[in-house]
Design a protein that fits this description.
With 176 residues, this protein is an all-beta fold. It has no helices and 12 strands. The radius of gyration is 31 Å and the shape is rod-shaped.
């Protein structure tokens, strides 16, 4: 009688079936079917929530300004995540933002007096392809802006008054 030990390590929790064949010199095979209850690594779990470090951005900042940093809650330790703006309810203003790595960036220059609240829908996907989504409300903060200043004195020309002043992009001006 010959004996030997076979080590079988399942890669996931649950029962796994296998067949072990013993072959002698004349190529006769004797199959032996067995099952092993696995206690290995648990299967990948989907992320459960997405957070962002801040949901406020000041008006009049350059395109590409960082709004906040994303993080994801997941019961699997060591998972990495890919963030993306995704279509669906709550993603009406996705076009005003971009994502680079885990950074939410502006894709437009915001003007509080025109619009002060934006809604985006973000998806976080783990390396196993499982994901969660969340809608965020991004608030544009009002910034005190200097009153326009004349760049030169008004000039009367052919019955028309010409007035020149320094302006800020996306601002509305009225002359009274």
């Amino acid at each position: 009688t010959t004996s030997f030990q076979v080590t079988f390590t399942p890669s996931a929790i649950g029962t796994r079936s296998a067949t072990l064949c013993i072959t002698n010199d004349d190529a006769s095979k004797t199959p032996f079917n067995f099952s092993v209850q696995g206690e290995g690594a648990s299967p990948n779990q989907a992320p459960t929530n997405i957070a962002i470090s801040t949901t406020n951005v000041a008006e009049n900042l350059a395109v590409g300004t960082t709004v906040g940093l994303f993080s994801t809650q997941d019961s699997d330790t060591g998972d990495t995540f890919v963030y993306a703006l995704t279509n669906g309810t709550g993603g009406t203003d996705n076009g005003s933002f971009t994502i680079s790595s885990n950074n939410l960036l502006t894709a437009a220059m915001f003007n509080y007096e025109v619009k002060s609240n934006y809604s985006i829908r973000v998806q976080s996907t783990d390396q196993g392809g499982l994901y969660t989504q969340r809608v965020f409300s991004i608030q544009v903060l009002d910034v005190d802006e200097p009153a326009p200043s004349f760049s030169e004195p008004p000039v009367l020309s052919n019955g028309n008054m010409i007035i020149r002043w320094g302006s800020i992009t996306n601002k509305k001006y009225s002359i009274h």
